[in-house]
UniProtKB/TrEMBL annotation:
Gene3D superfamilies: alpha/beta hydrolase (3.40.50.1820)
GO BP annotations listed: poly-hydroxybutyrate biosynthetic process
Domain of life: Bacteria
The organism of origin for this protein: Ruegeria conchae
Residue ranges of every copy of the Poly-beta-hydroxybutyrate polymerase N-terminal domain listed in the record: 108-280
InterPro entries in UniProt: AB_hydrolase_fold, PHA/PHB_synthase, PHA_synth_I, PhaC_N
Protein's name in the database: Polyhydroxyalkanoate synthase
A Pfam family this chain is assigned to: PhaC_N
Keywords from the named record: Acyltransferase, Cytoplasm, Transferase
GO CC entries: cytoplasm
GO molecular function list: acyltransferase activity
Annotated compartments: Cytoplasm
Length: 600
């Protein structure tokens, strides 16, 4: 293939023949595609979208409004027709004159960054009409009034998902980047893209789960999760890792850190430069971290009570024995922070004072507002999850991962899919995305308890959450605490976290809002000097007032937290080696449970 002076590829007969030859390879890959889809294990349809009742209610409300105010529909339709005709007229003019229209104002949507979306009449018309259609749908949804708040929020969310799904960039014939690459590579990009698609489907039992990272680039315990330590205790729920000291002395009170079991713990130990685990040991602390089991069908009957009894309480007790102390400082991240709150309420009622202080990372305890998860926490979806869990025994990782990804579908679904399946590119060697794809299954009983009792019922802050013979309540959380939240967190919105902390019974509370989101706001080492944080000791005001009156601090919150923790960590004692005579070293960190991949 040669290139002319204007950089337009000149297609020779030889090039066309190679293109046809490559397209012939599609047949073989198509057979594999048919085979994997034929063998796909079906799942509950309710997991794929809301039931028809939502759209029926929306349509009824919309048409009822139209009957009362017909001019409203006419105004919307006339505006839509006018824009559509104008789009077509501009395209016709450009085609007949051979001259491109002046580019529109710069489009902020990075999906349309290719110059052809402005200069080529065909692609320009497609882009303009897509944007016109998207605006019309959004306008129609916004005009539906006779729906309750949650249904309105769900309608907005799912209509936006339809808009994003129908973007022209998601289809080969209307994606100039993919078409250009197909011609440039003589069709090889499409062959590789189809290979990527088939491979992803084969790896996930026919489910469409886009691989986000090059899995061959990482080895757990090899080039990620490498902080030295040993597994010093193991049961059916977890492995307890004690990390090796790097200072001659350590604080007497150890730290026991509980990561979420929805994902693997090594998000806190991806690499040395941003490892919270490594950093904590460097500050002179004895650190224990729980690595949760990746559930399979044999764990179907494990509930929240088992996580508390065999996870939280056991880890705390074993850490106390190894360090020969009466108290520990506990840390809980996300759902593990929620469960740490439940554990602290239980310990209060039992008179157990083993926890000296608690730190919560992005932790929800009051689910009165469900934020961006509202579309997925209504009965139609939860009923579907309960039905699927009854068949599988677990809430499978791909269901959780897909739900999380749809909260950021452009970045975590469509863009990676385009690059992999249409452009034929290998996913990037990005450790964070590798971790994101290394999910974990949840035990069936625990998942339903969490969804029904906490997310939907909000029992912990209302009438109490019944567990282990006690009625657990947020007001019983009375140890000194610090809560770290993240400003743009779409999983645990900081304002919702704040509302929960306000209701805790502790007399000593510190609340922090870090810049950035659920992961980057937590994994924010001081060395990067990237994201700052807000503090305000007055927790009586509403969230908006708290932030307005808060002080902003440059850089990571880690040193501020460590200064707070130091005051609650006792005197210096000789550094402790891992384990003891009653806790032999079972294997080196990161252990064995973390290596188990989720069943598809």
């Amino acid at each position: 293939m040669t290139t002319t002076d204007d950089q337009t590829p000149e297609l020779t007969e030889e090039h066309i023949e190679r293109l046809k030859e490559n397209m012939g390879k599609v047949e073989e890959l198509s057979k594999r595609l048919v085979e994997v889809m034929a063998g796909k294990t079906p799942h509950t349809p309710a997991l794929d979208g809301p039931n028809q009742e939502l759209f029926a209610k929306a349509a009824t409300a919309y048409w009822a409004d139209v009957m009362q105010n017909p001019s409203k529909l006419l105004e919307q339709q006339i505006e839509y027709w006018g824009k559509s005709v104008l789009n077509f007229a501009e395209a016709q003019k450009a085609m007949t004159s051979g001259e491109s229209e002046e580019p529109d104002a710069p489009v902020k949507d990075k999906r349309f960054s290719n110059p052809m979306w402005d200069t080529n009449p065909y692609f320009r018309l497609i882009r303009q009409q897509y944007q016109t259609n998207a605006d019309a749908i959004a306008q129609a949804v916004a005009s539906v009034d006779d729906l309750d708040t949650k249904d309105k929020q769900r309608l907005r969310y799912f209509s936006q998902q339809i808009i994003d799904m129908m973007a022209p960039t998601n289809f080969l014939a209307t994606n100039p980047d993919a078409l250009e690459k197909a011609v440039e590579t003589e069709g090889q990009s499409l062959i590789q893209g189809l290979e990527n698609l088939v491979s992803d489907l084969e790896a996930n039992d026919g489910e469409m789960v886009v691989r986000l990272a090059d899995e061959s680039a990482f080895e757990i315990g090899g080039n990620i999760a490498t902080t030295p330590g040993d597994v010093v205790y193991r049961n059916r729920m977890m492995e307890l890792i004690q990390y090796k000291p790097v200072t001659e002395t350590v604080h007497e009170t150890p730290i026991v850190l509980f990561p979420p079991w929805i994902n693997k713990f090594y998000i806190l130990d991806l690499k040395a430069q941003n490892s919270l685990i490594k950093w904590v040991t460097e500050q002179g602390y004895t650190l224990f971290v729980v690595s949760w089991v990746n559930a399979d069908s044999s764990h179907a009957d494990i509930g929240m009570e088992d996580y508390i009894q065999e996870g939280f309480l056991t880890a705390i007790e074993e850490a106390k024995k190894i360090c020969k102390v009466k108290q520990v400082n506990a840390v809980g991240y996300c759902i593990a922070g929620t469960t740490l709150s439940l554990t602290l309420s239980l310990m209060k009622q039992r008179g157990d004072k083993s926890v000296k202080s608690a730190t919560f990372f992005t932790t929800l305890t009051d689910f009165g507002e469900q934020g961006e998860f509202t579309p997925f926490l209504q009965n139609d979806f939860v009923d579907g999850i309960e039905d699927q869990v009854s068949k599988d025994g677990v809430l499978k990782a791909w269901i959780i991962g897909r739900t999380m990804s749809f909260l950021r579908s452009r970045d975590l679904i469509y863009t990676p899919a385009i690059r992999s399946y249409m452009m034929g590119e290998t996913p990037p060697a990005f450790d964070l995305l590798y971790w994101n794809g290394d999910g974990a299954n949840l035990p069936g009983k625990m998942a339903i308890q969490y969804l029904r009792g906490l997310c939907q019922g909000n029992g912990f802050v209302t009438d109490g959450f019944e567990l282990l013979g006690q009625k657990l309540h947020i007001k019983d959380v009375d140890v000194p605490l610090m809560a770290i939240t993240c400003e743009t967190d779409h999983i645990a919105a900081w304002k919702d976290c704040y509302r929960g902390v306000q209701q805790m019974g502790s007399k000593s509370k510190s609340f922090v809002v870090s810049e950035s989101g659920h992961i980057a706001g937590i994994v924010n080492p001081p060395s990067k000097k990237k994201y700052g944080h807000y503090t305000n000791p007055d927790l009586k005001a509403d969230a908006e007032t708290w932030l307005k009156e808060a002080d902003f601090h440059e850089g990571s919150w880690w040193p501020m937290w460590e200064a707070w923790l130091k005051k609650r960590s006792g005197k210096q004692v000789p550094a402790r080696d891992t384990g003891d005579s009653d806790h032999p070293r079972l294997c080196p960190a990161p252990g064995t449970y973390v290596l188990v991949k989720a069943n598809r």
